[in-house]
Design a protein that fits this description.
six-stranded mixed β-sheet; alpha+beta; 162 residues; Immunoglobulin-like; single chain; 17% helix
Length: 162
């Protein structure tokens, strides 16, 4: 085999290797689509808002709060909503139209903005997924300054000075 043929074969192999590495790198940096998700913990009431710890929306939309029945299923009209751009969101404060009572159960749903108009409107704006596994969150309101949200009425431990 001549030197020219050997160099040509080596060049072709190098180009093929670069193409394979480049396509692998592109595949590694292109993340697969992520499903919508939301995370809310039981929480004491803080004014007329609910804190959503984390939410991911694949497209622009809304984080919507509903009341829940004793079985934990959403009921009635939305109690409040917050606009959210596509992507991840942490510690989103959702303002409620009226304060819930202590012990109320809430349900959080994610909606895609389908009508392009500002503000959530159930109907044109649609739920992003019916397959999201959710559980209701429960609110609590301490009755006294030292009462814990769990209903424990013991005063908090005293600090000791050294």
């Amino acid at each position: 085999m001549s030197i020219a043929k050997t160099l040509t074969l080596a060049s072709l192999a190098a180009v093929a290797a670069v193409a394979v590495v480049a396509s692998s790198a592109l595949a590694a940096t292109t993340a697969p689509p992520t499903d919508p998700s939301v995370l809310v913990f039981d929480q004491p009431l803080s004014g007329e808002q609910v804190n959503v710890s984390y939410a991911y929306l694949p497209r622009d939309g809304y984080i919507v709060i509903y009341g829940a029945d004793t079985a934990g299923k959403p009921v009635g009209d939305p109690l409040g909503s917050a606009t959210a751009k596509a992507g991840s969101h942490v510690n989103v404060k959702v303002k409620l139209d009226k304060p819930p009572t202590a012990g109320s159960k809430m349900w959080v749903s994610l909606y895609e903005d389908k009508d392009g108009k500002p503000g959530f409107v159930k109907g044109p704006d649609t739920a992003v997924s019916k397959a999201i596994s959710m559980r209701p969150s429960t609110t609590s309101r301490p009755n006294r300054k030292w009462e814990r949200p769990t209903g424990d009425r013991r005063p908090p431990p005293r600090r000791r000075s050294i």
